[in-house]
Amino acid sequence: MAPDLECVSLTKRFDGMTAVDDVSFSVAPGSFFSILGPSGCGKTTIMRMIAGFLDPSAGDIRIKGRSVLNVPPNKRPVNMVFQHLALFPMMNVADNIGYGLRRAGLPKAEIARKVDEALERIGLPGIGARRVDELSGGQKQRVAIARCMVLEPDVLLLDEPLGALDLKLREHMKIELKKLQAEFDTTFVYITHDQSEALVMSDQVAVMNRGRFEQVGTARDLYYRPETAFVAGFVGDSNRWPGRVERIEGETLALRTDDGMLMLGATHGRALSVGDRVQMFVRPEAIRVARDAAELARFDNRIEGTVTSLLFNGAASRILVRHATGGGEIEVALPQSGEFADLGEGDRIVVGWSGAQGNCFPATGQDGAPDAERSDA
Amino acid sequence: MREGTRLGFILLLTPLLLWLSLLILIPHVDMFLVSIRERVGVGKYDISLANYRTFWGEPLYLWTFARTAVMSILATIITFLIAFPVSYYIAKIARGRLQSALFLACLIPFWVSELVRTFGWMILLRETGVFSGLLQWLGLAEGPVEMLYNDAAIMVGLVYTSMLFMVVPLVTTLESLDDAVIEAGYDLGGNGWSVLREIVLPHAKPGIVSGSIVVFMLSLGNYLTPTMLGGKDSLWFTELIYSQFIVRFNWELGAAFGFMLLLLSSLIVWGMLRLTGETLEETMG
User: Fold this and answer.
1) Residues B161, B114: contact at Cβ < 8 Å?
2) Domain span at residue B82?
3) Closest chain B C-alpha to A262 CA, distance in angstroms
4) Contacts of B185 in chain A (CB under 8 A)
5) Which residue on chain B is closest to A159 by alpha carbon?
């Protein structure tokens, strides 16, 4: 089966800078594809090129195998849910949803039937006569999707549509969107800077940075097997330690961090040699905490230290542990099973993790470091 | 404390009340009283509707009255047709410095007085003027062409004078229209015309209505432009009022004319609001 959407060497240059640099990808029919990246990485530019509001400088965009480069936006079989939804404030809900059908010249009775059907599908039957500004954030969201879906596009583009919602509603809409996608059985291309939106909803996620795709894969791939330092830093949270390789034995290497800690990590197949500058990424949730070193005997990395901060955040609570001899700090996820409920700042503690969890990448100088800082955004 | 706020409220309200009562209410009440009296002898007056009867009985007055209304409506429509693309360009297409420069360009003509501006048009349009000279130089006209003193010249002057008052509300409302809404219109299959009709115009409606009301009232009450550009044959209702007051010293009839004009403009503005379904509060607020 031909992919619903295929971009080949897509490039967009604005005067003096390359916003999208030779990006190629294809999206299988009926799948949920996300482009995840920090703001300014070029993801919106890709979206606008697919929708037809920008012309690519080079490359091709194919929808169901046919190039759409010379097709104007109003004739493309793609529709877009805009960042701020862009519902037509001068029309009621039914007219909003029926707009595209009216443009397609359908008879009135059929438009009314299709609009009712769409309202039914998004779970808001009977609100057709309401004004747009009487709707709640979540309802607007669903109307914006219905407005596109009545046209039965081959691909639906969504440009950070959850950005304007508050946290609770956003969590709810993530599940809702995934359900709607299954309901309409259409290819969704979703762009976001919020990794949790991308990871929860997508079949495939492309992580984008500086106009290029760093890695394309499932959410699990990106989380467990990041291929670049940027992905390791951007997807999920990580401890990031720059350092120098001291020993290598097969997959395992020993790293001396710049702040003096010695720890084991894994190369995961990357070519590294003794003396190389590397960055090691370890997820806070991959690190175990114990009061007694004996409990962590099965881990090859064990570090004793003192708790310097407690960052309480419910299930996602963390502690910062300062290395007893070196100066380095380690961020560790704190289990909320009760045993550490009385942990206080200044307490002595042991942390440990398996060397295979330490993901090492060659340090690329300026690259990686500043972007990785944004990972919590 | 309560006393203090109350005093403050009264003090703040006083200028407004003075303005409304001294400049609008009292003159109009007096004007109305003048319009319904009839001179029956030296210094002796009776209350009657004779002045209004005179107005309805004289075809020239009625003709001028209707002509002024129709021409003003026409001027409003033409102003809108010219101002809309200009405003759309300023609000949606031009960016940054070009945008402010264009907006300023609309404003600049208003730095000189209306009288001077109207003389400018006379220099262009008169028999020995720029256009006439140009046509002769190009060989398109045999002799001097007189373009002044007709209805077209009045229309040019009215539209020119009113342009800014249409452009400002239109630019304001068009700027408040999110670009994404226009893009969504195209994305969902609309073409230029349907996006304009279904999205841009309905959004700009309050601006169109308020601009139209201002332009219409300015045209209806304009005295200078019709007098200077229209010459003797092009009668304008304000000229009739002027001549009753100043030339004929017939204040009673002049006041009745003034009241008819007030009634006419109120009626047409009301009709315009009804037609577009806008309310005065929404439009002016």
Assistant:
1) yes
2) 49-284
3) 53
4) 88, 99
5) B180
Q: How many domains does chain B have?
A: 1
Cβ–Cβ below 8 Å for B180 and A84: yes
Tell me whether B49 touches chain A (CB under 8 Å): no
What radius of gyration, in Å, describes the C-alpha atoms of chain A?
Answer: 25
pLDDT tens digits for A37-48? 998 888 899 999
Other CB atoms closer than 10 Å to residue B236's CB: what's the count? 24
CB contact (8 A) between residue A88 and residue B198: yes
Q: Which of B178, B181, B189 sits opposite A104 (nearest CB)?
A: B189
Q: How far apart are CA A356 and CA A301, in angstroms?
A: 10
Task: Identify whether B108 is part of a domain.
Answer: yes
pLDDT given for residue B55 in this prediction: 86
Q: Please give the pLDDT value at position B283.
A: 65
- A79–B187 CB contact, under 8 Å: yes
Given an 8 Å threshold on Cβ–Cβ distance, is B187 in contact with A88?
no
**What are the tens digits of pLDDT across the range A244-281?**
888 888 888 888 888 778 888 888 878 888 888 888 89
Instruction: Determine, for residues B184 and A73 on separate chains, whether the beta-carbon distance falls below 8 Å.
Output: no
The domain segmentation of chain A, as residue ranges, is 5-229, 237-376
What class, spelled out in words, does domain A237-376 have in CATH?
Answer: mainly beta
Report the topology of domain A5-229.
Rossmann fold (3.40.50)
Range with lowest mean pLDDT among A363-377, B81-95, B161-175, B215-229: A363-377
CATH of residue B130:
1.10.3720.10
Of A280, A293, A155, A188, nearest to A226 by C-alpha is: A280
Can you list the positions of beta strands (E) in A223-268?
239-249, 252-257, 262-266
